[in-house]
Amino acid sequence: EVSPxxxxxxxxxxxxxxxxxxxxxxxxxxxxxxIQAAMLTRRMLDNGAVPVSNGMYGTRSxxxxxxxxxxxxxxxxxxxxxxxxxNGNINAKKEPLAMLRGDAPNxxxxxxxxxxxxxxxxxxxxxxxxxxxxxxxSSQDAGVDHAADLIVATASLEVGFNDPNVGAVIQHKAPRDxxxxxxxxxxxxxxxxxxxWTVVVLSDYGRDRMAFQCYENLFEPVLKARQxxxxxxxxxxxxxxFATMDWLSSRNEYxxxxxxxxxxxxxxxxxxxxxxxxxxxxxxxxxxxxxxxxTQQEFNSWLAEALGIKDExxxxxxxWQPPRAIMTAFLPTVLRxxxxxxxxxxxxxxxxxxxxxxxxxxxxxxxxxxxxLPELQINLPGENGQEPNAYSxxxxxxxxxxxxxxxxxxxxxxxIRECHWLVPKKLELKDGSHSFPIDDYCPPDKRESMPDCHIxxxxxxxxxxxxxxxxxxxxxxxxxxKLSETSNAFLNWHSEIRPPQNGIPAEVPSNNVWQDIFQQxxxxxxxxxxxxxxVRFATGSRANIKFSxxxxxxxxxxxxxxxxxxxxxxxxxxxxxxxxxxxxxxxxFASISNNRELVxxxxxxxxxxxxxxDEA
Length: 616
Fold this sequence. Notes:
alpha/beta, 8-stranded mixed β-sheet
């Protein structure tokens, strides 16, 4: 670490930091609090046309959040609050809400923060002409508009963009990573005299509550040194796959063919839905590599040099040992997809066939993305009878964002009215249980059967069929239902762990306190060819349907059904695990019954359990 000592530093400028907690008793959403905070903070900075502080306070605000769904909600509602249409143009029929804060002096309004006289003192007019220019920067947008006053952004604007005019950074909800948060609130290029604001808007629950109570860890965190795990087996296997693609792309047999590059040639068929000559030549090269000892020796030497590997055992592990070994998994999978035209279950172009995404089960789709995530394709209605728009998401995120009954704005990038949801075709908006046929959620040719799953009910263990969805189709909620975009839903999740018959036993230390606690310890790992299968599945969702016309909310319990019987949708992953088999202690029920405080606690715990697991 290179840093100056205290005596070498001069005190100059300042930084203002504010942790703002929303009031749950006010029944206003936290997003509304963030919007008001953004409007006020923007008007506590210099007016871009007439800066009065000579750069001390800046002229531009950044608003960060970690969820694209929230980004889209925040962006369009902020445009509306500033009196603009969804395309950014001025709405002459609607005044900016800040205009309400600039009327005649009123002591009661001032006490409750509903008047902003300071904004007028520093050059803001708070009239119909005082409308902030709001822009958005996320993975769905082209870039940064330098004329913007307020920029709503995701992590895409964390690093690499230096703007000396940023005088305020607002974070909606607690940041997921303190190092990322430091990147967000710090901007290179600022003057030393600048006094930037950092505002964090927090709810009263969960991580937000902890962040508010420990605000010093938020604004002055102690960060541990981080190192890139370049020697990690997980990372090396991804790098080995990249290197193998480089080796294939450098072969003369491939280079002599007209090709679109190895990245595209391993993503989708290139000749009108069929493999091109270059892709066929790639398949021939892979077959030669898998079958020819001479070619393997040449490739092994090249790979060791490319990755800087000097340990022969480590090299052989990358080539032959699971998981994702080059010779036994990566190359055979590439060959199968090239020869079968990306077929799965006899249907072409259904086996991870996506443009510019080669081998997603071996190579991450973007830097720092997770690997080997099952994915779900979300089909959204096209405009004017056009083909549906298809988007791929990690299956867990996709199922949560499009839980039955939830109104999502994950892909609402065009207007404030755009939104999507996923409900049964024969929907009845009334309280209570509602069946959701699995054919409505995912058609038969877009799903795959999984082994039956087990769930615990009040009557005991129940076996239900489970399916893996590959594609779902969301729709736009009908206008006549007058639904509020804050309608939400949460999936009813269940988990199941399926270990192989035998793991790798480990000896429990003797003459140790653990000997009386653990009866057996077993390890399950890919390296020993015995990982476990972890299954997560949802049997339905609990939806809170809200309306824009002040009607009472509806509580609907959607339940997946197949042939009028309960069913589930889920996914599975093969993961490493360790199992601890515990010895049950010998309970002395006589002494327990005599302990009145313990019995009272057990009674309360039992009551809470019954309430939380009640299906009514």
